[in-house]
């Protein structure tokens, strides 16, 4: 498995996996625009040119947030998401981010398990944050500064 920045040629595969995984997917056009967004980092995990999964992040000053993480159903539970998030965390640490935060559907236990296994803590809940279907978001955060000062 290789993890590298998303390039234009990978966007169609990412857009397809978005559609498969989410009720309100990012469009191909929106994903293409992310390639020229200086605040955005999108990583893809591939094997021989085939997309296994991807993860996106936005950074503003020392705050970073995960925009999306998804893995092809055929390649789940093999550590792909964990590897993608580790890479995003490494980028955060290198670039001095204080924390990495994200929202996750309150019922998405698989993703919540993933984030908890990586040391994310629940710091809040956004009521009715999601639509299709309406659902609360849990706000999970991993603090890098605090980790370094332990
Ligand atoms: C959530 C998702 C990204 C996990 O991807 P993955 O590559 O299968 O995850 P990993 O193999 O890296 O799993 C790492 C850890 O997460 C947890 N985990 C992941 N999938 C799980 C599942 N189906 N059941 C229970 N725990 C799970 C486990 O703790 C796992 O460690 P383990 O396998 O050693 O027990 C994937 O299921 C997915 O794409 N889901 C649909 C999209 C989505 O919900 N994205 C998150 C949006 S916030």
Structural class call reads alpha+beta
In the sheet with the most strands, the strands line up as 1-2-3-4-5-7-6
The CATH first-level class comes to: Alpha Beta
CATH architectural arrangement: 3-Layer(aba) Sandwich
Query: How many domain modules?
Result: 1
Q: CATH homologous superfamily, by name?
A: Gcn5-related N-acetyltransferase (GNAT)
Gap between N and C termini: 33 Å
Task: Give the overall pLDDT as a whole number.
Answer: 95
Largest β-sheet summary: 7 strands, mixed
Strand content: 35-45%
Number of helices: 5
Rg estimate, integer Å:
15 Å
Order of helices and strands: EHHEEEHEHEEH
How many strand segments? 7
Unreliable segments of 5+ consecutive residues: none
Q: Can you list the ligands bound to this structure? A: coenzyme A
CATH fold-type name: Aminopeptidase
Helix content: 25-40%
Rough shape?
A: globular
Describe this structure in words.
With 150 residues, the protein is of the alpha+beta class. 32% of the residues lie in helices and 39% in strands. A seven-stranded mixed sheet has the order 1-2-3-4-5-7-6, sandwiched between helices. It is built from five helices and seven strands; from the N terminus they run βααβββαβαββα. The site of coenzyme A (COA) has 19 residues, from strand 4, helix 3 and helix 4.
């Amino acid at each position: 498995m290789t993890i590298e920045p998303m390039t234009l040629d990978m966007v169609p595969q990412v857009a397809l996996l978005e559609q498969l995984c989410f009720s309100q997917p990012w469009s191909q056009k929106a994903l293409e625009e992310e390639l020229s967004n200086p605040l955005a980092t999108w990583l893809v995990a591939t094997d021989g040119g085939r997309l296994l999964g991807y993860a996106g992040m936005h950074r503003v000053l020392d705050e970073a947030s995960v925009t999306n993480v998804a893995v092809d159903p055929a390649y789940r539970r093999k550590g792909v998401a964990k590897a993608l998030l580790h890479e995003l965390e490494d980028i955060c640490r290198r670039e001095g981010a204080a924390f990495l935060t994200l929202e996750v559907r309150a019922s998405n236990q698989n993703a919540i398990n993933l984030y908890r296994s990586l040391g994310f803590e629940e710091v809040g809940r956004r009521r009715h944050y999601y639509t299709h279907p309406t659902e609360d978001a849990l706000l999970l955060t991993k603090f890098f500064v605090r980790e370094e000062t332990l």
